[in-house]
Amino acid sequence: MAITLNHTIVHAKDPEATAAFLTEILGLAPPRQLGHFTVVQVGDTSLDLIRGDEPISPRHFAFLVSEDEFDDIFDRLRQRGLTYWADPFHKEPNQINHWDDGRGLYFDDPNGHRLEIITRPYGSGGLEAKHPNPLLSR
């Protein structure tokens, strides 16, 4: 049996609202309740949202999407008037990146978690790409 990531726990101020945000923006199935968790299914892995009263440390979640899914998600972000960035440091607002000759962007969820959608895995274009991933060294 291959090892896969089954789930990860994500702290949220309002798990139900966060789950609704994620499923609507990403175009996923509606969330489900599992005990005290609000569960968002992303492929074989779930994000198990739990209410937290303490300050939330922002985490990063990257979603590999198709070109068509990227277009749909991008449209939903713009329809809501949400800010997005081409970079994880929020220095390039309202732009997308073309790393690995794909497309990518970052946006925040209601808890400050940084979400990313990409159409190509990091480094998949190699150094031969027209727009190599900046993480690759030359």
Explain what you see.
- This protein is of the alpha/beta class and 138 residues long.
- 18% of the residues lie in helices and 27% in strands.
- It is built from two helices and seven strands, in the order E-H-E-E-E-E-H-E-E.
- The strands form two sheets. It has a four-stranded mixed β-sheet, covered by helices on one side. The chain has a three-stranded mixed β-sheet with strand order 5-7-6, with no helix packed on it.
- The model has no long low-confidence stretch (mean pLDDT 96).
Q: What is the number of helical segments per DSSP (H or I, 4+ residues)? A: 2
Strand order of the largest sheet: 1-4-3-2
Calculate Rg over CA atoms: 16 Å
Largest β-sheet summary: 4 strands, mixed
Strand residue content = 25-35%
Mean pLDDT: 96
Helix content: 10-25%
What is the strand tally?
Answer: 7
Protein name: VOC family protein
InterPro entries: Glyas_Bleomycin-R_OHBP_Dase, Glyas_Fos-R_dOase_dom, VOC_core
Organism: Litchfieldella rifensis
Domain VOC: 4-120
